[in-house]
Amino acid sequence: MLGPVAAEQGGYITAQQALLGGVPQWMLVKLADRGFLRRVRRGVYRSDLGRASSLREETIAAWLELDGAVLPWERGVVRAVISHASAASLLDIGSIVPGLPEITVRRAVRRRADVTIHVAPFASEDVTWLPLDEALRVPVTNAARTIIDLLLANEETDYLERALREAFVDRRSARGALAGAASRRTRARGLEGRIERLAVGSWPA
Q1: Has this prediction a pTM greater than 0.85?
Q2: How far apart are CA 156 and CA 175, in angstroms?
């Protein structure tokens, strides 16, 4: 069971997924001790031993830790999505340097010291499954939702304007997309003025 799961997730597998396939936690630990798996973070392992740890890998593993309780081919509703600066980095928009992995969940979960967890609503329209390689796709907030999240987090305007220019072709398309994303955020009400100023600043007359 470990092989098919790893093949669907770019080599990654969670302890919960392994257990669904009849492989207990102690066996994963044993496989890691023997060098057949590499422990990425608590409850998340990887079979590809040739790749060194990276910020991107930390983000992937943080998402899997929060939403890795189902087998990849049985995944339905997204319960956790990569967001904020982590999403901007994966989408390659703006010049924001991510720190800890940032994940948005709909309902409060136990806090982790090594991941920033945001609790906020998100709709399917806010999420894109981003292909990172041939065998791995991860849920990431799309460009509009990512920029709205960063706007609410008071990210620097210069960074947001650059992200907007890289994500959209003109002011009109940016306004519409941001307004739609804002309407699905409970805390985003009343953002019309800030969105307009951001759009005008990104494409000055």
Answers
A1: yes
A2: 19
